[in-house]
Write a structure and sequence with these properties.
The protein is α/β, with parallel strands linked by helices and about 200 residues long. The protein has six helices and six strands; from the N terminus they run ααβαβαββαβαβ. It has a domain at about 70-195: Rossmann fold. The model is unreliable at about 1-10 (pLDDT under 50).
Length: about 200
């Protein structure tokens, strides 16, 4: 891509969905890109084999601390907000003797990214997983939670006020979740947020 083409290209931020340990082991980074019913990401990102993409970064302040003192982590995601949380959660799993909770909300049961991975980690007792869908109606076989993430979803996973919480997703979800966590006694300094 020429310098002129690069300057005029549409730029859009994406979060890395792989922990540093995964990148070192596999030799690549992973991004989670939402697509429409035809499998298209949109005009800003043509996903065709052989397409070259220009990557800057990483950048931003929504990161996992290098040497956390906390023993409990709670990751709360809405939709594709799971991407950076997946990277952080995998990194947290590499720290021994930690308790990790994940609350993940998606529109429908088919919209959970990395579903098999989350279910396997929960089955192995490595994470405490709660899922909820926000679209009413739909799949009658769904046995998980329904509606937006709320106090009842979060309270069992906020073991104490020093739980370190990471929240990523749509702006309204992030704002409501941060307020609920504060209401549950988590100090604002222990609530890290990223909204899109």
């Amino acid at each position: 891509m020429s310098a002129g083409a690069r300057e005029s290209a549409v730029r859009k931020p994406y979060s890395i969905a792989a922990a540093p340990e995964d990148v070192r082991r596999d030799g690549w980074i992973e991004l989670l890109v939402g697509v429409d019913e035809r499998g298209e990401a949109g005009a800003h990102l043509p996903l065709r084999e052989g397409t070259l993409v220009d990557i800057d970064g990483p950048m931003g302040s929504f990161v996992f601390p290098p040497s956390p003192e906390e023993r409990r982590f709670l990751f709360i995601a809405g939709g594709t907000g799971i991407a950076p949380l997946r990277a952080m959660l995998h990194h947290a799993l590499a720290i021994p003797h930690r308790e990790i909770g994940l609350v993940y909300s998606a529109r429908t049961p088919d919209d959970f990214a990395y579903e098999a991975e989350w279910l396997a980690l929960a089955r192995d007792g490595r994470i405490d997983l709660r899922r909820t869908i926000t679209r009413t109606g739909g799949d009658a076989s769904w046995q998980g939670g329904r509606g937006r993430i709320g106090r009842a979803d979060l309270q069992p996973l906020v073991h104490d006020p020093v739980t370190l919480c990471f929240v990523c997703g749509p702006q309204s979800m992030v704002g409501d979740t941060a307020k609920t966590l504060e209401d549950l006694g988590v100090a604002p300094a222990r609530i890290r947020i990223e909204e899109w």
